[in-house]
Amino acid sequence: MNADPAAQLRLLDLQAADTALTQLRHRRSTLPELATISHADTRLAALTDDVVRAETEVSDLDRDQRRLEADVDQVRQRSDRDEQRMRAGAVPARELESLQHEVQTLARRQSDLEDSVLDLMERREEADARAAALGAEVERVRSGRDTAAAARDAAFAEIDAATAARTAERAATARDVPADLLALYEKVRAAAGGVGAAALHKRRCEGCHLELAGTELRAARTAPPEAVLRCENCRRILVRTPDSGL
Ligand SMILES: [Zn+2]
User: Fold this and answer.
1) CA of 59 to the centre of ligand 1 (A)
2) Is 0.85 surpassed by the pTM of this model?
3) Ligand 1 centroid distance, CA of 234 (Å)
4) What is the pLDDT of residues 131-170, one digit of tens each?
């Protein structure tokens, strides 16, 4: 294939733009903030479950406490009633004995119930503290996620602006390259890890970094300027420049 040496040189500009675009794409998809955000999302999902469990525990204990307090009230009222009857007098001896017995039993029952209320209140305090600690952890993770999301958005905006500029530059450069040479460049670039054209610099292929020698070097020296050279090692398009050392 033959092509104007100026068009061959433009291939190096095209390659520079393509390499920059590849790097921008890579940077966009590997921003450290993306991992931070994903990690925070996983953590928040797990924390949400924990928060629901802790809040359910608090409301269960509240309900149990109300029930116990109602029981305490009931026992107290019954005991008050018994005491009033005894104080009112005119209670037959057998009934008085049974009332006294009941008052004692009720007192024990009330004391047990009050112990249970205290125990519940203690457990509720612990559950409250757990729920509060989880709430604080949610806030901390959410705030870290917000910071990372803001940094990600700023990086995206910067990368997208650079990508738009490089894409426009690439389109302008591609217009200077003849269709057949451009097609060859694209084909080689797809097959050779994103690098289709490399400069021949001091007799070295900048694509695979191998130095030209022997017949290949002699062929490069004698080739007319418009001949499109290929590296025999990596098959990339070799572009001659004033620094090629031929
Ligand atoms: Zn090479």
Assistant:
1) 72
2) no
3) 4
4) 999 999 999 999 999 999 999 999 999 999 999 999 999 9
Q: Distance (Å, rounded) from C-alpha 70 to C-alpha 64?
A: 10
Report the C-alpha dihedral over residues 137, 143, 145, 149, rounded to 10 degrees. 170
The single-letter code of the amino acid at 6 is A
Q: From the CA of 235, how far away is ligand 1's center (Å)?
A: 6
CB 7 within 8 A of CB 176: yes
Q: Where are the beta strands (DSSP E) in the chain?
A: 197-201, 204-205, 229-230, 237-240
List C-alpha distances in Å: 204 to 208, 209, 246: 8, 6, 10
Average pLDDT over residues 91-115: 93
Q: How far is the centre of ligand 1, averaged over its atoms, from the C-alpha of 187 (Å)?
A: 15
CA of 23 to the centre of ligand 1 (A): 21
Ligand 1 centre to CA of 197 (Å) is: 9
Report CA Rg, the chain.
42
Q: How far is CA 162 from CA 20, 25, 121, 166, 204, in A?
A: 9, 11, 61, 6, 31
Query: How many residues make up the chain in this entry?
Result: 246
pLDDT digits (tens, 9 = 90+) for 107-122: 999 999 999 999 999 9
Distance CA 230, CA 11 (A): 13
